[in-house]
Amino acid sequence: MLYYKTIADKAIAQLEAEQLFITSNEDTNSIAVIIKHIAGNMLSRWTDFLTSDGEKEWRNRDAEFETEIVSKENLLELWEKGWNCFFNAIHNLHSEDLSQIIYIRNEGQTAMDAINRQLAHYPYHIGQIVFYAKMLKNGAWDSLSIPKNKSNDYNADKFSKEKSLKHFTDDELKKLQ
Prior knowledge:
Elements: H1 2-13, H2 31-46, H3 72-91, E1 101-104, E2 107-110, H4 111-137, H5 151-159, H6 170-176
Antiparallel strand pairs: 1-2
Helix pairs in contact: 1-4, 2-3, 2-4
């Protein structure tokens, strides 16, 4: 999930503050609204993950789709709060917790199933953020992965190094430290 957060962070960083609030029509969500929704979902699902229903009484999901946050700083503060809640919950799990039954809207599932549910949900929205950001940049886009027509160069660099065991997010983790 760190990979998906990193991709979204890099896309968001390329945008001017006002671009976060643009919608292409009344049926689409701005990047700001998508961020609010992801953060709201994370705070609800991952607060007391193993002991309370994942749809908290205090969550107002419908309000997540309104644009009352108007600054990039406040939006990113909420974004980080959601991710911190998620990562703290995940990092505190033990292997025996994964088979525990948890509830979301009174529907029971194993903790592992709930994690997998979110593993599909968050990248879905992050893909929306990246796609929309790329459109808003209109050509002035810094690639978030292997740049177009650069696969051979990328592969040549990777294959020029010794084989090693590492996770593909290790380089991103080093940058954060």
